[in-house]
Every structure is written in structure tokens, then in C-alpha cells.
Amino acid sequence: MTTGDAAEPRGLPWPALEPTTEGYWRAARDGRLVIQRCDDCGTHRHPPTEACYSCQSLRWSWDDVPGRGHVYTYTWVDRPTTPQLAHLGVYNITVVELDGTQGEPVRVLTRVDDVTREQLVVGLPVVVDFEPLPDGESALPVFRPQRELKT
Which of 35, 80, 88, 150 has the fewest CB atoms within 10 Å distance of its CB? Predict the structure, then answer.
């Protein structure tokens, strides 16, 4: 993945493909949510780092997680902070606490789509979805409300 004015979506920079983040973005491209996990103590962590905050190990790998969680906190953005975000209109910035992780709760900064101001509340169950980026090399993990399955 490269950066360049003509290739960037609506003027925003691409996610950085660095050794500690590349697996996250590649998995998202493939429709999978992965979180970094310490190979020694099993602790999950996000955002990705070189060393485990729990045991300081430098050994880690990517672990597929279920992609479900709940809204931990959020805010609504009524006016874009930059012109490159104007296409989103009114949007939310949300912290989702993920299910299925070990160690301290893993929280990801994201957006919850398909919700109104009234529907987006702390504790709302959500499930991951992936917004493909125009480069075809990655996707942006976003979340949607988890709908009950009808049987």
C-alpha cells in the first residue's frame, strides 16, 4: 500500500502498513477481525505494539476474534473536523469493547453505522463489518448493531 494524493480516499491517508499493523489491515481486507496476542502470556492488546504490556514479551501473533462487542462510549460529530470527512455527514466516533479477548478489556476506536442518535447507547451490542478501501489492499473495520436472529 502506498500513499499518494491521487490514490488516497477522499484525501485521507491510507492505514500504515508497518510490521506491527499490517496483519490487522490485511485481515480486515479479508473480512476478519484480528487482535494482537502475546505468545507468552496470552494477553490480547490493541492498538498493536511491539511489546506486551503485561509481561513485556516481544513474541506475538494475530488472533481471530468473534467481532462482537458492545459500545463502551461514543460521541457524535455534527461538523467534520476536516474537509476530507465531509462526505460522512453527521457521524459517530465510538469505542467498542470486544468480546472474546483475554487480559484487560480490548477496546477499538471505530464507527457504528446504521444507527440513529437515539439508538446508539452505551452497552449496545454490535458486530463488526468491513468497509473496503478503494486501494483493494485493506478495509476499515466498522460496527453495526447486532440484530437478533429470527428462528
Answer: 150
Q: Residue 22 falls within a domain, yes or no? A: yes
Answer whether 46's CB lies under 8 Å from 120's CB. no
User: What global pTM score does this model have?
Assistant: 0.87
Give CA–CA dist 42/52, Å, rounded.
Answer: 10
**Is residue 139 in some structural domain?**
yes
- The tally of domains found in the chain comes to 1
Site of grid cell 505468545: 39
HSE, side-chain direction, 13 A CA sphere, residue 110: 30
Joined grid coordinates for residue 35: 487482535
- The answer to whether the beta carbons of residues 48 and 16 sit under 8 Å apart is no
Q: What is the pLDDT along the chain (151 residues), one digit of tens a residue?
A: 333 333 444 556 677 778 899 999 999 999 999 999 999 999 999 999 999 999 999 999 999 999 999 999 999 999 988 888 888 889 999 999 999 999 999 999 999 999 999 999 999 999 999 998 877 777 999 999 998 655 4
Q: Is residue 136 part of a domain?
A: yes
Q: Quick one: cell of 135?
A: 486501494
Residue 122 CB burial class (10 angstroms; 0-12, 13-18, ≥19): exposed
117 inside domain: yes
